[in-house]
Amino acid sequence: MANIQETIAKQFPEVEFAQGETLELNVPDAKWHDVAAALKNDFGFDNLRALIGMDWGEELGIVCYLVNSKTYEMIRVKVVADGRENPFLHSVTDLFTVAGIYEREVFDFFGIKFIGNPDMRHLFLRNDWVGYPFRKDYDTNPTLNPVRLDHEETEDTTVEYVEGADGKIHKEERVIFAPEDFVVNIGPQHPATHGVLRLRTAVDGEEIKKIDLYLGYIHRGIEKLCEGLTYPQTIHFTDRLDYLGALMNSHCLCMCIEKALQVEVPRRAQVIRCIMDELMRLNSHLLAMGTFCMDLGATTMLFYALRERETILDIFEKTTGARMTFNYNVIGGVRQELADDFVSDVKKLLEIMPKAIKEYNQVFTGNVIAKNRMEGVGVLTPEAAVAYNVTGPAGRSAGWNYDVRRAQPYGIYPELEFDVVTCTEGDSMARFKARITEMEQSCRIIAQLIDNIPEGEICAKVPKVIKLPEGHWFQEVETGKGAFGCYIESTGTTSPWRMKFNSPCFCLAGVVDHLCRGQKIADLITIGGTLDYIVPDIDR
Q: Does one domain contain both 510 and 412?
């Protein structure tokens, strides 16, 4: 990191440096694109992990986290826009493909326009929405944005802000769909989109030419709501993002807060959290596998998968009292002790899983119809996985060997033996097989811990009134869908100034157009199912 600071400082003397959790750069917008290019090309920071819109009161801007896809090093970059009335920043879409949707999200909620982004439309909000909801001065008067019963006007064009040689910015129109394009809606009311997700799809016969993504149908403004709550009150929201990764999501938020408070979590609580996370991963992969097979017409596989999933939900229910939204992780540990028969129930699950996985492969994986539908369909290269920030099984099955449990170790994972499951094919079959193999690794992790749960406290002592010191923190965990991140910026009060949940499913949805071009309409269902995005995690 010292070498990076020294080199960047020589090339860009305007850049300011600080050392926090990682190296931090404060970059003027005029130099942002050049600095980003240097970080990517000279130092290998080729993965844009997060791009977070910010309103600091006097200033608007963004906070970015960049990752080196090979060494897993991470750096933080802060860029401030000029003014609040008509703020602009330079886009890095040409460097990091995923920046396209990240920047549109920031425009949606903060009103920052990105020079050079070829699509500056709303992404989550209606195109007739008034104001920018995540700004601190946003007018919440309901008459400005009443509940509308009519559908927004569909746009076939967008705008790009272009900077001329004289430094002046002008707006140019860009075409999304031409008049001769035959465009159909897939979703938002379609069972195979796995939620209210709308895909405007241009087709030539059965072949997909382009997909335009429409999000926000169930957006709940969770990040904005968190700004008015205390830190303990924010935790239950994480169960309602990816509800198949509920325990891992809340684990992430709790670790981020614990990091800020410098709270040491008791060993017993750490082991319990790890077991619960891996049970949650099994739960997520089983439902992903079962519903995907049903989408392809293999309904029998759904019932095979639900059989083991119900066993896992029974285990959760005995300890937490719930089967979906658990609210089990708390700041400092876990909420309550394990059920009396937790250990024996988990051991029974570990006994049946090898046989069950063998059945899954016999029933579906080797099926000739399944092979025809999946092999060679929706191929993702490792370079594209990095560019689109596709993490989790989808990224690893493309050959990008990135798992947060190894790359940015947390909890007790550094002590455990397990393999990071990677493939090289990058197609739908590889993504399906990766999840099955990951279930075997989750069982392997649980088996190492289930007889070694130590005695002791399940929660550290924390203040009754929790105030984080002034500062910012970023924490990630590995969920069943990929790298889930939580960013907190605090001004020293009992509520976060900004709380951002960095969703893996947002990026998975963002790569659908790339994977589906040139494929058949039926392949869209295959590709979407193996990506395993879930809409509540996107529409935060």
A: yes
Range of the domain at 44: 2-176
Is the alpha carbon torsion for 302, 303, 307, 310 positive or negative?
positive
Number of continuous H segments (helices) and E segments (strands) in the chain: 18, 17
Report the domain count for the chain.
Answer: 2
Note whether 227 and 126 are same-domain residues. no
- As beta bridge partners, residue 198 has 214
Contact 60, 82 (CB under 8 A): no
Does residue 221 register a pLDDT over 90? no
Residues 267 and 391 in one domain: yes
Per residue in 293-349, pLDDT tens? 888 888 888 888 899 999 999 999 999 888 888 889 999 999 999 999 999 999 999
Q: In this structure, what DSSP letter does residue 447 have? A: H
Query: Is residue 194 situated within a structural domain?
Result: no
Q: How far is CA 126 from CA 27, 222, 386, in A?
A: 32, 18, 30
C-alpha angle 312-317-321 in degrees, rounded to nearest 5? 160
Compute the distance between CA of residue 151 and CA of residue 290 in angstroms, rounded to an integer.
34
Instruction: Give the count of alpha carbons within 13 A of 167, CB side only.
Output: 1
> In this structure, how many other beta carbons lie within 10 angstroms of the beta carbon of residue 78?
19
- The three-point CA angle 284-287-293 to 5° equals 135
- Res. 192: pLDDT tops 70: no
Q: Report how far residue 348's alpha carbon sits from residue 450's, in angstroms, rounded to the nearest whole number.
A: 11
Model pTM score:
0.91
Distance CA 300, CA 414 (A): 38
Note the pLDDT of residue 2: 63
1: confidence class by pLDDT, cuts 50, 70, 90: low
Q: Which residue has the tokens 């995923």?
A: 98
